[in-house]
Automatic annotation (TrEMBL):
InterPro entries per the UniProt record, alphabetical: WD40 (IPR011659), WD40/YVTN_repeat-like_dom_sf (IPR015943)
Protein name, entry field: BACON domain-containing protein
SUPFAM superfamilies given in the database record: DPP6 N-terminal domain-like
Species whose genome carries this gene: Duganella aquatilis
Superkingdom classification of source: Bacteria
Pfam families, alphabetized: PD40
């Protein structure tokens, strides 16, 4: 032996330990095994060369394992191979022997198949067990591939494996096994050597020739090759399967077949053909190399890069054709659609012959808008798919409905003028029938159906139904249009009715004295549409001398003297009622002086000619008060109104208007003091003293008040409550309402915005015929007391200056007695006299005998030679209407008014109501001797 190599020892874990010997001259390999440190070997595989296993044997174990293959030389040359023979030398261990369970092996199998292994069982027995044993063996044949040994306890199994791929035939040989006491195997144990004869019978098997296939072609072409198939014995046919769609077999016979590779794109492809016969299978690898043909198409090629459709909603588009060219190896054209939005199903694709594709887009279930999808063209797994973008523009089936959309009913309207025609079309649809209906009874349709672009729809006002609607409102009617096909959504066409028939609201002033003639303002609306006011104006009880239209809401009547009432109305051709207003004729009885006790701060003083009563509100007591004459006495009645601030009367005298600082405007019946209604404002301002006039009633029924309307963004800051519509609003302009002076007929209002700013904001005026307030001349100052005449001819700025209607100065007010100061100004109804109640500043103390005076000034003409108005004299009052002491708590401002005949003054304060007839003879000058100036009275 040339060398001995020490193998690593791994203790008693069942691992192999010992020495390995190599012999270069004979190829014999010896393996030394220490059996005392080894329980078992799971497998010992010898694939070639000679193996000698040497064991140091534990006396309690009798196990030796030999694994061999192509054993060339036995230990010491071995014996002749007779089974159960002995070695040529003496017995090295008398009483000990080895044996195997068989001396013959027979194997059988088919060519190309795995022949199952067989095993030999070896056993050691007897006494005088040797401590060292050498095993050897020799394969005397050519058919054994290898042996695997498995040791279990005192036995060993030798698994013998025939060679694979043996050609058909029968192979015989002998395995010669030896067990020796020395390395040269010159001393055999009893039972050694032993010969094991074997036979390997190999039948004819399944075989494919060639065992692998290489094919090649140009794109679009196929390739094929025949193969021979040898069937195993007892089998008469076979089957074949391929691993890829491009790989097929054909022409199958009992001895062969044809392998076919189909048309493919450029590339290298690998596949398998599995041949099965009985229980045997053979796999044939196939390599397929495809090269490009420069003259052929290499990808999917549509003739258009994109498709665009348009269709009205409810309809399908006209179809489009797409021509698709495929490579010659394509498996066939297939299509699919990928929608880019949530709406799907609107594209219909139908492939045809020769690569033709029909594409139709439908808007039957789509709303107007743009819809997008991708038409995906596929030609099999070997081709990259191609996407063709598709766009569908869904058009709204836009109705084109034109014609009469507004109907106006006013004073000029007749039955023939309250109508029109409507043209109906849907331009992008074919001519078809339409249907129409109205949702309003006031709108009549000439027909309920017709044809697009052909038949017009007539509309007109149903007069009877229209007259039931409130005047000066706008109404809408929807005409619903639909198509009989139902494919297009219907539409609505709105017709607006603007009802502006003339109506009357008030005549101002609403009373006159018996035998009185004059000009009267009639308020309402819708007057501008009246062609001839004289023809439609109806006046009962008087014949107008003149009729002058001022604007759409006002005209003036000049009436002669009369003894009875005059009622004004308007006629029209539609039979609509304009309402009526009545100018009442009243008789004014004479009053005697009276002082009526009435404690509490007051707000507003109204004289009602119809009822010969005075009205005020008592802030201290929280009540609405009425003073009415009964014989020689005055009766006082009241109605509770919490947080009350001021009272005024409506232009027709039918309602008392009361402001309440908790945020309401309330209406009361002047005859009964019962409440007629309460209306919530945005806010109402007030004060606790005898108030400045924080409410002004225009003759059109708009009640201006200090506060907030609660109506936003309508272009103004002066709040009002409209008695006609019973609603709130704001006068246009950027001014505010603090307190005001208003003419007796409500035609002219002068307004102080505030006294809380420096510099003071300008005074503004609001004429009854104007819609917005305007700043007054800069010469007009600031006042706390003021007065106007019945028709606004004269305006008293405090108790120190008089202006005309157009803010021309008439003259100054100069009280000749230096200790007296003006408190309350009152004009005669015609504005020719100014009465100024004044207090003696030296007499404001308890026990004083000084009396209030009423100074009378001539305000009929403008001063030209002097600035002071002529003083006509004065007269004294027997009582103070207010407290009469000089202290902070005493408010000496009294409220004042005058009777319609100009003969009696009324002053009201926190102490009493003073009824003061104006004497014919004044102190200092006789009334008949009044000086007249040359210039006439100015407006």
């Amino acid at each position: 032996m040339r060398q001995i190599k020490k193998l690593p020892t791994q203790g008693r874990s069942g691992r192999l330990a010992g020495y390995q010997h190599a012999m270069h001259d004979t190829g014999l390999m010896h393996l030394y095994i220490d059996l005392q440190s080894w329980d078992k070997i799971a497998f010992l595989r010898i694939s070639k060369g000679n193996i000698l296993l040497v064991y140091k044997i534990n006396p309690m174990r009798y196990l030796a394992v030999i694994g061999l293959s192509s054993l060339l030389v036995a230990c010491g040359g071995g014996g002749s191979g007779a089974s159960g023979g002995s070695g040529s030398g003496p017995d090295p261990a008398p009483g000990f022997s080895v044996s195997i369970d068989r001396t013959q092996l027979r194997f059988s199998g088919d060519e190309g198949s795995v022949i199952p292994s067989q095993f030999i069982m070896g056993t050691g027995s007897g006494n005088n067990v040797p401590t060292t044993a050498y095993f050897g063996g020799e394969d005397m044949g050519t058919a054994i591939d290898h042996v695997e040994a498995r040791i279990s306890g005192t036995q060993a199994q030798f698994f013998v494996y025939p060679k694979m791929q043996l050609a058909a035939g029968e192979y015989t040989g002998t395995l010669k096994l030896s067990m020796c006491a020395d390395r040269q195997c010159s001393e055999h144990f009893k039972g050694s050597p032993v010969n094991v004869a074997y036979t390997v019978s190999v039948g004819k098997g399944l075989k494919v020739t060639p065992g692998s296939v290489d094919l090649s072609s140009l794109t679009g072409a196929s390739a094929s090759v025949p193969v021979a198939v040898q069937l195993p014995g007892g089998v008469s046919s076979f089957s074949a399967a391929t691993s890829a769609a491009w790989l097929q077999v054909a022409n199958i016979t009992s001895s062969g077949m044809t392998i076919i590779a189909g048309a493919k794109g450029p590339g290298l492809y690998n596949g398998l053909v599995t041949v099965s016969a009985g229980s045997r299978t053979v796999t044939v690898p196939v390599t397929y190399r495809v090269t490009a043909d420069p003259s052929s198409v290499s990808s999917i090629t549509p003739d258009r890069a994109s498709l665009d459709f348009s269709a009205p909603t409810g309809y399908a588009s006209s179809g489009q054709q797409l021509k698709v060219t495929l490579p010659n190896w394509a498996q066939g054209l297939s299509t699919s659609v990928q929608y880019r939005t949530g709406d799907a199903g609107w594209l219909v694709v139908t492939p045809g012959a020769g690569g033709a594709v029909s594409v139709v887009a439908s808007a039957a279930n789509l709303r107007p808008g743009a819809y997008r999808a991708d038409l995906v063209l596929s030609g099999g797994t070997e081709l990259a798919p191609v996407s063709v973008p598709v766009t569908l523009n869904v058009l709204a089936a836009d109705w084109s409905v034109t014609g009469t959309s507004t109907l106006t009913v006013d004073a000029a309207s007749t039955t023939s003028t309250m109508g029109g025609q409507i043209s109906i079309d849907v331009p992008n649809l074919p001519v078809q029938g339409w249907q129409a209906s109205s949702n309003a009874t006031w709108l009549q349709l000439s027909r309920s159906s017709g044809s697009l672009r052909t038949d017009k729809l007539g509309v007109s006002v149903n007069v009877a139904q229209m007259l039931k609607l409130a005047n000066f409102h706008t109404y809408t009617a929807d005409i619903t249009l639909s198509l009989a096909s139902g494919k297009t959504a219907g539409t609505k066409f709105t017709v607006t009715l603007d009802k502006r028939l003339p109506e009357l609201s008030y005549i101002s002033p609403h009373t006159r004295l018996s035998g009185e003639a004059g000009n009267y303002i009639v308020r309402g609306r819708g007057f501008d549409a009246i062609t001839n006011l004289n023809q439609v104006l109806q006046v009962k009880g008087a014949t107008p001398a003149q009729i002058v239209r001022v604007n759409d809401t006002q005209f003036e009547l000049s009436l002669p003297a009369a003894q009875g009432d005059a009622t004004v109305a308007l006629s029209n051709t539609l039979g609509a009622s304009s309402g009526s207003v009545t100018l009442k004729t009243v008789s004014q009885p004479a009053f005697t002086y009276a002082a009526v006790a009435a404690q509490g701060n007051k707000g507003g003083l109204v004289f009602d000619p119809e009822r010969q009563a005075l009205f005020t509100v008592n802030k201290t007591l929280g009540s609405l008060m009425r003073f009415s004459k009964s014989g020689n006495n005055w009766n006082v009645s009241s109605a509770p109104v919490s947080s009350v601030d001021e009272v005024a009367i409506s232009p027709d005298g039918k309602s008392l208007i009361v402001t309440v600082t908790s945020g309401q405007i309330k209406l009361f019946d002047p005859a009964t003091l019962t409440e007629q209604g309460s209306f919530k404002a945005g806010g109402v301002y007030g004060e606790t003293l005898n108030s400045l006039p924080r409410m002004a009633v225009r003759n059109d029924g708009k009640v201006l008040f200090s506060g907030a309307s609660g109506v936003q963004d309508d272009g103004g800051y002066m709040p009002y409550f409209d008695l006609v519509s019973r609603s709130f609003g704001n006068i246009g302009g950027a001014y505010v309402f603090g307190w005001a002076s208003v003419s007796g007929d409500g035609s002219h209002i002068n307004i102080v915005q505030s006294a809380s700013y420096t510099p003071l904001p300008p005074i503004v005026s609001l004429d009854g015929r104007d819609q917005v307030a305007k700043p007054a001349p800069s010469g007009l100052g600031h006042w706390f007391e003021s007065a106007q005449s019945l028709r606004g001819e004269r305006f008293a700025e405090g108790t120190y200056k008089v202006w005309d209607h157009d803010f021309n100065v008439i003259g100054k007010v100069a009280i000749p007695d230096s200790t007296y100061f003006g408190r309350t100004p009152v004009f005669s109804p015609d504005g020719k006299r100014l009465y100024v109640m004044a207090y003696d500043s030296n007499g404001l103390y308890v026990g004083s005998t000084s009396k209030p005076r009423v100074y009378v000034f001539d305000s009929s003409t403008r001063m030209v030679t002097s600035t002071d108005l002529p003083l006509l004299g004065y007269f004294e009052l027997a009582d103070y209407p207010t407290c009469a002491v000089s202290s902070y708590e005493c408010d000496t401002r009294a409220l004042g008014t005058i009777s319609p005949d100009g003969k009696t003054l009324f002053f009201l304060g926190d102490a009493r109501l003073i009824v003061a007839p104006i004497p014919a003879v004044l102190v200092g000058r006789q009334a008949a001797a009044m000086r007249r100036l040359v210039l006439p009275a100015s407006r």
